[in-house]
Amino acid sequence: MVGGALQVAGLLVGGIGTIGTFAVTGMPQWRVSAFIENNIIVFETIWEGLWMHCIRQANIRMQCKVYDSVLALSPDLQASRGLMCAASALSFLAFVVAVTGMKCMRCVQGSCPAKGSITLTAGLLFVLAGAVELIPVCWVANAIISDFYNPMVNVAQKRELGEALYLGWVSAFCLVAAGAIFCCFSRCCEKSRTYGYSAPTLYSTHSHHLHRKTESSYSKSQYV
Predict the structure, then answer these.
(1) Residue 182, number of CB atoms within 10 A of its CB
(2) Nearest in space to 174 (alpha carbons), one of 119, 26, 121, 182
(3) Is the distance from CB of 85 to CB of 25 less than 8 angstroms?
(4) Band of the pLDDT at 204, cuts 50, 70, 90?
(5) What is the Cα–Cα distance from 14 to 130, expressed in whole angstroms?
(6) Residue 145: pLDDT over 80
């Protein structure tokens, strides 16, 4: 019962992380215009994402345009495209594997011992997806902070951390947490399975020695 609840909790947390990863990949709010010094045009907000940049004017209208070329992006955003796509694919694959290995699913007796391996695979995939997602999010955040405090960068080109970065950190944490839950559950299943198999082995060994001793006594009595 506890194991089933633990798996359901891990699946829910992993599902939240997976949905968040897909949302972060498509959101344009990676870089947000900063209102500092002379750049106080508050009625216009600029968003820069992995696939497009948007201009929002006074909360009334918003215009978005897809980048004409990948070369128009900064190196951190170029790399973040591939890494976020990889994180999305890994998180989705981990979710599918986790659903396959759910304890509540019915399976034939021959495949039941493989559930621990399937659950462990799902946990490792969740952890890997979270780690891959952290790389671009932290990379872009570091670049934004460095440019913000760099006096050589023009004020109009300085940006702030967007909502997508914060959501990326939360999603990565959910993926790693789900992976840890599934790995712990797989370890507990392995221990319980080992304990369940050890007792019959000792009993059978004891019975085998007792049987051999009885046969030896019977042979000696026959010989006499």
Answers:
(1) 30
(2) 182
(3) yes
(4) very low
(5) 10
(6) yes
Which residue matches tokens 């399937």? 118
Q: Which among 190, 20, 11, 6 has a CA at the least distance from the CA of 98?
A: 11
Rounded CA-CA distance 24/167 in Å is 7
What's the chain's length in residues? 224
Rounded CA-CA distance 50/45 in Å is 17
> What torsion, rounded to 10 degrees, do the Cα atoms 212, 215, 217, 220 define?
-130
∠ CA 34-37-39, nearest 5°, is: 50
Q: Give the chain as a DSSP string.
A: -HHHHHHHHHHHHHHHHHHHHHHHHH-STTEEE---TT---TTEEEEE-SSEEEEEETTTEEEEEE-S-GGGS-HHHHHHHHHHHHHHHHHHHHHHHHHHT-TTS---GGGGGGHHHHHHHHHHHHHHHHHHHHHHHHHHHHHHHHHHT-TTS-GGG-EEE-HHHHHHHHHHHHHHHHHHHHHHHHHHHHHHHHHHHHHHHHHHHHHHHHHHHHHHHHHHHHH-
> Tell me: the pLDDT tens digits for 74-128?
888 889 999 999 999 999 999 999 888 775 555 544 445 566 788 888 899 999 9
Q: Report the chain's mean pLDDT, rounded to a whole number.
A: 78
**Residue 163, both tokens:** 């909502």
Cα-Cα-Cα-Cα dihedral of 85, 91, 95, 97, to 10°?
A: 90
Percentage of the chain modeled with pLDDT above 90: 35
